[in-house]
Specification:
By secondary structure, the chain is an alpha/beta fold. The protein has one domain: Rossmann fold (3-Layer(aba) Sandwich), CATH 3.40.50.620. Strands 3-2-1-4-5 form a five-stranded parallel beta sheet, with helices on both faces. It is globular. The model has no long low-confidence stretch (mean pLDDT 95).
Length: 226
């Protein structure tokens, strides 16, 4: 079996991405991050998803981005709520965590190099991406090039790292539909930025998720606070 490192946040995008990697014949080596995010509840979901998909290993890497701050997810900044979809799609929101995917992918490449994996999967989308600049294929292509130039495996080991973005052209609704086709249990996932006992239903992430289920005529299996 081929090995794939899969970035697993606990959300529906990363769960679907992991299921896609599995369907393509990869053994899953999941990696999640405890970086001081206010919605750390997602790590419980990441663990459950990894188990449900039969991951060979699930690595949780801890570091503290609250020391840097600069985001509503890691600093004393209010998470935006009750924005409509048009507002969500304009500009880079305060929930953007500076260089987060750059950091995540760097860890993923390090993990992949260590276990001898050439393939890395990340569940980003250019369609429903909330304005984050590090959720574009253009960024991933640049990072992939850097990974192959800046590692022993890429320069001497005969390995060519490939960063897969299977959702990059899919809307949230299309991602949910794909996940359902692959048997993803979305009741295990978590998307809310606030990280309470129940998803808030008001933050941008909840809004995009709920809109995705509504667009395919289905009810989100999660119970919302509002």
């Amino acid at each position: 079996m081929k090995k794939a490192v899969v970035l697993l946040s606990g959300g529906l995008d990363s769960a679907t991405t992991a299921a896609i990697a599995k369907s393509e014949g990869f053994d899953l080596y999941a990696v999640s991050f405890d970086y001081g995010q206010r919605h750390s509840r997602e790590l419980e979901s990441a663990k459950a998803i990894a188990q449900s998909l039969g991951a060979v290993d699930h690595l949780v890497i801890s570091f503290d981005m609250t020391k840097i701050g600069g985001s509503a997810l890691t600093d004393n900044i209010d998470v935006p709520v009750d924005r409509n979809l048009a507002e969500i799609g304009q500009g880079i929101p305060v929930t953007y965590v500076p260089a987060r995917n750059t950091i995540f992918l760097a860890f993923a490449v390090s993990y992949a190099e260590t276990i001898g994996a050439e393939d890395i999967f990340i569940g980003i989308s250019e369609v429903d991406y909330s304005g984050y600049p590090d959720c574009r294929r253009e960024f991933v292509d640049a990072f992939e090039k850097a990974a192959n130039l800046g590692t022993k495996a890429g320069t001497e080991g005969g390995i060519r790292f490939r960063i897969h973005t299977p959702l990059v052209k899919l809307s949230k609704a299309q991602t949910i539909k794909k996940g359902l086709e692959l048997g993803v249990d979305f009741s295990l996932t978590w998307s809310c930025y606030l990280g309470g006992q129940k998803p808030c239903g008001k933050c941008d992430s909840c809004k995009l998720r709920l809109a995705g289920f509504a667009q395919i005529g289905m009810k989100d299996p999660l119970e919302y606070a509002d």
